[in-house]
Every structure is written in C-alpha cells, then in structure tokens.
Amino acid sequence: MGLLDRLEVVSRERRLKVARAVLYLAQGTFGECDSEVDVLHWSRYNCFLLYQMGTFSAFLELLHMEIDNSQACSSALRKPAISIADSTELRVLLSVMYLMVENIRLERETDSYGWRRARETFRTELSFSMHNEEPFALLLFSMVTKFCSGLAPHFPIKKVLLLLWKVVMFTLGGFEQLQALKVQKREELGLPPLAEDSIQVVKSMRAASPPSYTLDLGESQLAPPPSKLRGRRGSRRQLLTKQDSLDIYNERDLFKTEEPATEEEEESAGDGERTLDGELDLLEQDPLVPPPPSQAPLSAERVAFPKGLPWTPKVRQKDIEHFLEMSRNKFIGFTLEQDTDTLVGLPRPIHESVKTLKQVTRVGSQSSGIGSHQGILAKEHKYISIADVQIKNEEELEKCPMSLGEEVVPETPCEILYQGMLCSLPQYMIALLKILLAAAPTSKAKTDSINILADVLPEEMPITVLQSMKLGIDVNRHKEIIVKSISALLLLLLKHFKLNHIYQFEYVSQHLVFANCIPLILKFFNQNILSYITAKNSISVLDYPCCIIQDLPELTTESLEAGDNNQFCWRNLFSCINLLRLLNKLTKWKHSRTMMLVVFKSAPILKRALKVKQAMLQLYVLKLLKIQTKYLGRQWRKSNMKTMSAIYQKVRHRMNDDWAYGNDIDARPWDFQAEECTLRANIEAFNSRRYDRPQDSEFSPVDNCLQSVLGQRLDLPEDFHYSYELWLEREVFSQPICWEELLQNH
To answer: Which residues lie below 8 Å from residue 733, measured CB to CB, with a gap of 6+?
Structure first.
C-alpha cells in the first residue's frame, strides 16, 4: 500500500523507482529465495496480492501517461539511434503487467477460492470496457499502430506484442477452451457432435520421414545395376518395399539427407525465389542433425504400421449438391437446386453413392475406464459446420429484415473485441505484418523498414568479440520472440472470430490477404527451415530465474558457440506451426488464394519444410500441398508420389474431392476474381447490417398521426426561447407565400 501511494508522486524518477520495487515483488523477491521453485512460487503469490491491492489499475494509468508523453516521443524522434535507455519506464510497466496477466491466467488445482474469483474478475476487467474505457487489448493494438507509423519509435514492441498475445489468450481463451466453446456452440445450434477432438488426433500422429528424391547414396552403391534388376522383379519389389518402410516409419533417422533436387524442382524453386524476393538459396543443403548415438536402429520386423486413417472422412452439403447436379445433367438433362433427396430417374449406383455420402457409419467395440465393452460410436460423413449455419442465417436476415426482426447479438468478449477493432482493423493487420516482415530471418535491413530493435540495442555498441556475440544472440532471440507472439496472436484471433461469426473471420482474413500475408509467410519459409528450428539463440545461464539464483559462470566465446543441449528450439517450431496454420486458414476453400500459392511457386518451399520431423508441422504442410495438387500438373504428381502417399495417410479425406487428379469444376480461373468480390460484398453487408445501423433507418416505423406528432416533447436548446420571435419573423412572416404558384405546381 505504501508503494502504491508513492506511485502518485509528481517526480518521474521517484515513480520509476517505486515501479521497479513493484517489479521486484512481481518477479518473486528473488533476493530472499534459495531455489528457482521458491522464486516462481512467490512470483505467483505476489502477483495475486498485487492485483487484489489494485496495482494493475494504477499501472494502467501510468501506462496511459507514458503513451501520451509527447516529450519522450519527440526526444526519440530527434535521436539518430534509439537504444534500450529510451524505453526504461515503459519496459518496467509492461513487465509488471505481463507478469500479473501470465501468473493469474494459469490455472492450478491448488488455487484457493479467492484466487479463482480474482482470476474471473480480472478476466472480466480485461475483456469489457470498464469506466468508459476501451478494452485493454485495444490499447495495446493502438500502441502497435503508433509504433509502426513512426510516431513512437521508442516503444518496446516485443513486450507490447507479448502482453497483447497473453491478454487475448486470457480473455478469449486458448486452443483447449476454443475446442470446448466449439462443442458448446454446436450443441446450441442443434448440430451433431464432433466425430473427434482434432487436438488429440494430432497428438497421437507420428511424424513421417521426408520424401527423398532418389535412393540413399549407400544403397545406390550397393544395389545391382538397373539392367540386372529388370529381370528380377521380386528383388526389385523387395528393395522398394524396404525403402518405403524406412522412409515412412523408421524412427532412427531424425532427418534423412536428400539427394539434390531434380531439374524441374530447381527451376520452380528459382522462379518462386524471384517471385517472393527471397534472399536465401533454395537448394543450399546444410549438414543435418546426426542421430543420437544411444538410440538403436529399429529392425524391419518392429515397424508398426498404423491401423486405419487418423481422421473421419467428411462431405459438405455443397459437395452432395454438386454431385447430384452433375449426375442429373448427365442422366436426365435438368437440375433441381438445393434438393438432395429426389433421386427419381437416376441409376442405382448414383443412389448408392448418395447414400454413402449421407450415411452414418457405426464402429464396433469401445473401451471404457473400467474395461472394454461392446459400444456403438457413430461417425457421420456429412458435416455441417457452424459457419454454414451462420451464412444461412445471414442470408435470411438480409432477405427478410422486417419479418425476422432485429438480431440479438450476445455481448461476448470476442464480440466486444471485434466491435472495438472494426474501425481500425486494416491498420492493425498491416502493422502486425510489417513487424513480422522486419523480424523474419529472410528479410534484409532496409532504410524504410521499421526498427524493431529499439528495446534490445544498448546505448554503447559492443567493443569486444564476446560482447558482439552476446548481442547477436540477443538480437536473434528478440526477433524469434516477436515472430512467435505475432503468429500466435493472429491464429488465435482468426480461430475465435471464425467461431463467433464466419464473416468476422472472413473480414480479418481478407485484410491479411490484401496486406500480402500469403507471400510474406512463404518468404519466411524460403530458408533452410531445419536450421531455423535447430537454432540456438539463447544463453541458458542468463535465463530467469536461473540467472539470479545460481552463481553465473564466466561467459566465453566457446560457451556461447556451444549453446544449450536442446536439440530443437521449441519457440521457432511453435512459430512455424502457427504460420502454417495461418496459411491454411487463409487458403481453405478459397480457389483464388490457392492459386496464389501456385503462382508464388510454394510447392518446393513447402516440400522442403517436410524435412522437419514433427507430426503437426508435417500435417499442415501436407494440407497446403493437397489443396494445390490439382493445379501442379501430372508430371509433378508423378515425380512426388511419396508426398502424395503422405497426404493420403495424414490429411482428412473429403468423400468426392478429386484433389489428386485435377478434374474439379470449381477450379475455373475465370471465377477467381468474382469469388473474392462476392465474399467482400457479403462481408460489407454483414458489417453494415450489424454495426452501422443509423438511428433513423428506412425500416424504422413512421408515425402518421397528426395529434401524436404535435404532442411529442422536443428537447430545444436553452437560447431558443430568446430567439424564437426573431426566428418567426425571419423564417415565416417575412417570407411571401404565393399560393397560386403552389396550386399550379401541384
């Protein structure tokens, strides 16, 4: 309480000193702790205590003051080089707020009732407008746009983005809460439950070895010449079977070293590099990570082949209608729009096909917690999404606005956030993508690009080799954290907006596409992605809270070069998966955007990412390859059969999707522009109907009763009584009225 009282003093230096003391409390009073566990325990305890004492509100007022501090902005603008010293106050404030949000956000079973209540109260305060102020996330978004516009180049953008990501995750919910909300919403709309939990399915998937262009060098040297193999079909089949099983299921090789790519892939990769303005050589092959010596190779007999496909096949209502339209045109000569029940005149195989598309398959035994028992698990092929229902409802509201009445929109945190972001949403998306571009490892420093290193560069540049290496690691780590926070933030926003209303999701998606998000992500992957994921841009002895509990060893250039013992940088792997999921969200069911992937030559870039042996990352790469396979030509499919097999094994099947053949009627190039224009018109109609309703709309009722209109009380200004007689004289008595002209005109 004493510290909070002293936060209100006029002197900026004294306020900063008190804020540092509060930061020491939020960090866990590490000077009085003996272990890392104690530091984390007291950090969590103190953050709840600080919130209950009203610290967050006090720091929010100080943050407003610092944002509006024109003196600091002008001082930073005048400096030739901005350093970490220009954002000291902001960094202290944002650090305290970040620690409070992160500690209170995480739930534990041992939390007391008071802490649980405090968590829900805090979530409500951050989600909704309190005391006529905007939600906290919008304040942080405004800081991002202000930084990108050049008005406040001293803002510590890494801390702002991290806090923004955690606030959105806290207020809207993470991926597990999102799945629970999806199940709840489907139940409210009367839709059948989901066939599987996508998070659990991906967790149980195994990574496949990357597809190799030719046999390994060792095997090709030992194998007999092709002329001898022609006559020995059994040996050839045995060799190929062995190779396939090793490629797909052998867990010994972390990453199989590939031979140089074919001529066709080299040409397409070069074209893609030129199109994306990529700076890295697509064909550079760095030495890959060797397998750990302790891990013994698996024998061919121990290879466990998966049983069945991981995903339940799906079919959309649109796909059934499309199939029946083609069948009716072929056999009858006319169509029935939106009729999937009438099968008169169609041959028996068509009846069976429609039945299969609509059918509910039933699976046998199912195990429970006590023991296995015979149960029935229903899996329906026909899938009706929440988006389908929302689009249908929107069409009805546009068609019959009077009879259906006004739509009741629940005031959820997601809805509040969208309403607040709506006016400036294009600027927010452009700002985030600008920062992402500046932080991408493939980007070159340009004079007109924004400076994202303002809160990491020291006042004095390093003079020794050790200092330079340490700063280089710090700069790379800084960029990686920025990429991680932006990718996670954009993915969370898209997923929550899609669940809240499909046109909110489409609005954000369109602005991301218009801001060149698709080529930006492809440019990000236009590097040796394996080296990026195995990068070691961290110094473990300087990580918190290890650095303040243990005695720091002397740092040397050798220890910095060695790095830590982690085989992967999970931060970078997380960022890559998020960016791939983001790309999937933008291109799914959008033929025009899929064609952008083809135009930018994304196939060799994505295929190279399959070298990373992680199941979730491979799944989203294969999804992106699947949607563009039909456009890549027969020769590409013929020379990439192992990739095609991996798509078949890992990606969900759509019942009548001929992704592998390219006969899709929806793939007509002249429809692409019309598709985007129609979508944009629907989005504008939705935003206009729900958010831009004027008070006197054309559908508002009109009072035609003279007595009722004259009897209404009107609020007149105070000075009207004094000027009323002058108004009568000027507007009524002094204006001659020619009644004859009025009669003639009518």
So the answer is: none
> What number of other Cβ atoms are within 10 A of residue 321's Cβ?
16
Distance in angstroms (rounded) separating the CA atoms of residues 59 and 94: 9
Per DSSP, helices labelled H in 658-738 are 672-691, 706-710, 720-728
Two tokens at 534?
């195995």
d(CA 466, CA 482) in angstroms, rounded, equals 25
Angle between helices 55-67 and 36-52 (to 10 degrees): 80
How far apart are the C-alpha atoms of 652 and 641, rounded to whole Å? 18
Instruction: Kindly state the tokens that stand for 582.
Output: 């983001």
CA distance 623 to 588: 9
User: Distance between alpha carbon 705 and the CA centroid of its chain, in Å?
Assistant: 55
pLDDT of residue 562 exceeding 70: no
* DSSP state letter for 700: S
State the pLDDT at residue 445: 67
- The pLDDT confidence band at residue 372, using thresholds 50, 70 and 90, is very low
Residue 96 has pLDDT above 60, yes or no: yes
Amino acid identity at 472:
G
Q: How far apart are CA 511 and CA 419, in angstroms?
A: 16
Q: How confident is the model at residue 194 (pLDDT cuts 50, 70, 90)?
A: confident
Count CB-CB contacts under 10 A for residue 614: 14
448 φ, ψ (degrees, to nearest 5):
-95, 0
Outline where 217-288 has alpha helix (H). Answer: 217-222, 226-229, 233-249, 263-276
Determine the 3-state secondary structure of 56 from DSSP: helix
Rounded CA separation 587/594 (Å): 6
How distant, in Å, are the alpha carbons of 141, 347, 350, 383, 672 from that of 326?
49, 13, 11, 21, 21
Residue 227 clears pLDDT 50, i.e. is over it: no
pLDDT of residue 19: 96
The secondary structure element, H or E, covering residue 366 is strand 366-367
Distance CA 422, CA 406 (A): 20
C-alpha to C-alpha distances, 164 to 61, 144, 548, 619, 737, nearest whole angstrom: 17, 10, 27, 28, 65
DSSP state of 378: E
Smallest CA-to-CA distance from 283 within 309, 308, 263, 253 is with: 263
Gap between the Cα atoms of 86 and 88, Å rounded? 6
Mean residue pLDDT across the chain: 82
Spatial distance between the Cα atoms of 574 and 733, rounded to a whole number of angstroms: 78
Is the pTM higher than 0.85? The answer reads: no
